[in-house]
Amino acid sequence: MNIDIMKLWVDRYFRTRAEGFLNPSSLLKMDSMTSHKDRTARARPNSSGANVAIIPGGLARQLHPLDIAINPSMTFSVRMEWDNWMGHGSKSFTPMGRTKKTSVNEVCSRFLPA
User: Fold this and answer.
1) What is the mean pLDDT of residues 13-23?
2) Among 29, 30, 63, 73, which residue carries the largest CB count within 10 Å?
3) What angle (nearest 5°) sits at the alpha carbon of residue 24, between those of residues 18 and 30?
4) Recorded GO terms, molecular function (predicted)?
5) pLDDT tens digits, residue range 2-11?
6) CB atoms within 10 A of CB 45
């Protein structure tokens, strides 16, 4: 993610979230990625009444409960589905013998259940 994408996300999603209109004071926690630490990117949520907190490197797992509770099990499920697909899934090849590009629909149908 770069600074322009960060600003776009704040304008398009963070400012327009449903509960943001009724409760303008909020806290946006971000890790210490370069685009998150940029002054202009941090000023955008501040202008809509949000407080911005930058989490120092190495502390994200302690301060983001979803990183501990949800992400590992989801990663495991996706990994299992990927291994199953690569080992047993149907593959089609180009005339040169390379694996054909998979359609977006097929990828979504494979990984949404995971």
Assistant:
1) 68
2) 30
3) 85
4) nucleic acid binding
5) 888 888 888 8
6) 22
